[in-house]
Amino acid sequence: MTGGTHSQGAFTAILFEPGASPHTFDSSSEIYEYLSHDIRKHGRIIGGKGIRGTRSRFKVRHREGAAFYHGTVHMYVSPADLVTLLPKMIGDSVSGTTFSLADELPYFGILTDNDYGTIEYTDCMVDQWVIRSRAPQFQEAGEPDMLYMSLSIIASNTASTSWPGTPPTLGTSAGYAPYAFQDCTGAVTINGSTRHIEEFTLAGNNFLYAKYTNALTPHSIRPRDRQIGLTCRVPWNSTNADLYDMSAAGAAASIAFTNGTVSTTFSFANMHVPAHGPAPERGKTQVDLLLEGICTATGTGNSSRELQITNDSTP
């Protein structure tokens, strides 16, 4: 970059490196195309609030406090991206193309290139994640039908690490094509029947807790709980009448995406849907039914958990 000019977002990049620190970023690291991110160190200056006969606050009374390291990455996601991201989101339990929930989450490192300078974030974990998409409205601007994902991440520290001399490159095979909403046409099942949906949001929360002790950085990061939720909007008609006031026991559900030879299926062993009735909330447009599902396990096996994902990214 020419000296004295400003950094430009178009020239930024981000790498992930599996495992705990120290991380080695090289040509085998994971590179992702992303829309934006705000991962950064949130430093704190503490003290200086005492009373000493003046309204001025004095330099000597201020100290460096423990810092917090966190932020969110936003992207349009492809099946090839999911191969390396799913273990970080739901736990490192993988068998071939099947990704299952695990009680522990893996650490990983992140290296950001902000056009001017690089920053490494060590021992990261995914706290919350969201995958969503919807049908576009007639003549609407924007790209709501792209499959959008956000990853909220907590890190342990920062480090000075150079961008690798031979960085990885983004893949160009069919597996790297982001999914779109129409890729799940005819492949959404709720309560035993195939449904046409207008939009969906799949969200996971790992309830991470960054434990601080007598240090400026976290002692450790651990997941405390897990919550999986699936929200869908469907047209209110005779086909979907059985989705209103469903049994409190819940029912299975799934959403499958297919784009040529690649496919991804999100399977939910059980989804409880509170009875929220239909209403003309959008004025003179069609009446919709909003399903705000709470996903739960029906057993201890992987296929009986709240969520299991089959992801085939082979071109």
Written description of the protein model:
With 315 residues, the chain is mostly beta strands. It has one domain (14-46, 60-312). Helices cover 4% and strands 43% of the residues. It contains 1 helix and 21 strands. The protein has one helix at residues 79-90; strands spanning 13-18, 30-31, 36-37, 40-47, 62-76, 93-95, 98-100, 108-113, 118-134, 148-154, 157-159, 188-190, 193-194, 199-205, 208-211, 220-223, 227-235, 251-259, 262-272, 288-296, 308-312. The protein has a 19-stranded antiparallel β-sheet that branches. It has a two-stranded antiparallel sheet with strand order 15-16. Strand 15 and strand 16 form a beta hairpin. The longest helix has 12 residues, at 79-90. It is globular, with a radius of gyration of 23 Å. It starts with 12 loop residues before the first strand and ends with a strand. The model has no long low-confidence stretch (mean pLDDT 94).
